[in-house]
Specification:
11 helices; alpha/beta; 257 residues; 3-stranded parallel beta sheet; 6-stranded mixed beta sheet
Length: 257
């Protein structure tokens, strides 16, 4: 049985985690996500939305698989696979939206954290409860959450394992919008269409430069900003026909990625 379902409509790829009963990020799901990379890079895909089947987004790593992991090396290999895919998404220039349709825990939240935008169900709770198992986040949560909401709130979530309500998640900037559950995916699609109405070259570079602000020195980020701004100015006012955008082929080229 396929653990991921995908559908493509007008350049927007909807990826649904379908791993009942909790949509956990099992080894099969991680392998399926990693196998998506060529599809995400294809010319046909211009924006990506991740969501979950049913009433859950994702309950995190598959705890039931933990006893079957034979040694630390196997565990680290699994973590490396998750890190590799999440880093791929984190550096991706096309818009990625997490349509969080329900409970979002552990690795599920870590997946949402690498997305550019997060839309949350008004009944969706989010958290990093690994501490309750004598563990800690291992797929980027300890690094990305403080960068997003600040060290203090992140420490509270990570060290207490507390679940955060939609209202608190919105107030802390953890999510961008809270809507009724049935509106989560339509809201994400509407956002994707709004973004794709912009100049694609400018959109991709704006995403890359803004993301760089969290992990490169200010001087390097400013240099990137200057370079991208100059490239866009040259394209908009010197070489590109007035009112024209890049072609889909140039947008999806490897140079753009």
């Amino acid at each position: 049985m396929a653990v991921l379902k995908t559908s493509l409509d007008d350049g927007i790829l909807l990826v649904t985690i379908d791993n009942p009963p909790r949509n956990t990020l099992s080894r099969d799901v991680l392998e399926a996500l990693s196998a998506l990379e060529p599809t995400l890079c294809s010319e046909e895909v211009q924006a990506v939305i991740f969501t979950g089947a049913g009433r859950l987004f994702c309950a995190g790593a598959d705890v039931d698989e933990m006893p079957s992991i034979e040694n630390r090396e196997q565990l680290e290999l699994m973590s490396m696979r998750a890190h590799a895919f999440f880093e791929f998404l984190a550096s991706f220039p096309k818009p990625i939206i997490a349509a969080i349709n329900g409970t979002c825990l552990g690795g599920g939240l870590e997946l949402a954290l690498v997305c550019h935008f997060r839309v949350l169900s008004e009944r969706g709770m989010v958290g990093l409860p690994e501490i309750e198992l004598g563990l800690m986040p291992g797929w980027g949560g300890t690094q990305r959450l403080p960068r997003l909401i600040g060290e203090g709130p992140a420490l509270e979530m990570i060290c207490t394992g507390a679940l955060i309500s939609p209202e608190v998640a919105l107030a802390r900037g953890l999510v961008h919008k809270v809507v009724p559950r049935k509106q989560v995916v339509p809201e994400a699609v509407a956002l994707a269409r709004k973004l794709l109405a912009k100049n694609r070259r400018a959109l991709h570079r704006a995403i890359r430069a803004t993301r760089a602000a969290t992990h490169v020195p200010l001087s390097a980020g400013l240099e990137m900003e200057r370079t991208f701004f100059a490239e866009l100015w040259e394209s908009a006012f010197k070489t590109a026909p007035a009112g024209k955008e890049d072609t889909p082929a140039s947008i999806a080229s490897k140079e753009e990625l």
